[in-house]
C-alpha cells in the first residue's frame, strides 16, 4: 500500500535529485554526514522530513525547548516549499544561515545550529557574504571534495588489505591446530 517514502531529497516528479555535496559546497563531506546523521536521528517517522513534533522533540533533547509558535517560526524561516516540515535540504539551510551569520542570536534556529555540535564556523561559508569570494571558494571546495574522496578510498583499500592479512594469518594459525 503506497510507494516508499524515499529520502525526501528529490523534487516532485523526479526531475532532479538533490545532491548535498553539490549544492552545499561550503561544508566538508564530514560535516554533511554529521548533519545527515542528526537529521535521520530525529526523523522519527522515517519519511525524509522533520515535522513540528519531531522538531519539538529535537529541541527538547538539545536542551533548548521552544514554544509551539517558536517551532512554527523555525520551520517557516527555511521552509521553501511551504509544506510546514523540514526536508534534509531545508535542514541544511539552517546551518548555511548559521555559518553566514544570518540567524538572530535569540532564534530557535540559532540555538539548533549552536547546540547540534556540528561546527560550521570553521569551514562554513568562508566569506560567502561576498559573492565573488564565495565563487572562488566553491571552486576550491570542489577540489577539496575530490581530495577527501581519494583519502577515503585509500583508507578503505588499506583496511581491506589489513583484513586480508589478518584472515591469512588466522588461516595459517588455524592450520597448525588441525595437524
Automatic annotation (TrEMBL):
Stored Pfam families: AIF-1
Top-level taxon of origin: Eukaryota
Keyword match Lipid metabolism: no
EF-hand domain span: 30-65, 66-101
Protein keywords: Calcium, Coiled coil, Metal-binding, Repeat
PROSITE patterns registered for this protein in UniProt: EF_HAND_2
Region (Disordered): 1-20
Comp. bias intervals (Gly residues): 1-13
Regions annotated as coiled coil: 135-173
Keyword Membrane belongs to the record: no
GO molecular function, one term: calcium ion binding
PANTHER family named among the record's database cross-references: EF-HAND DOMAIN-CONTAINING PROTEIN D (PTHR13025), EF-HAND DOMAIN-CONTAINING PROTEIN D2 (PTHR13025:SF2)
Protein name per the record: EFHD2 protein
Organism field: Piaya cayana
Upper lineage: Eukaryota, Metazoa, Chordata, Craniata, Vertebrata
Gene: Efhd2
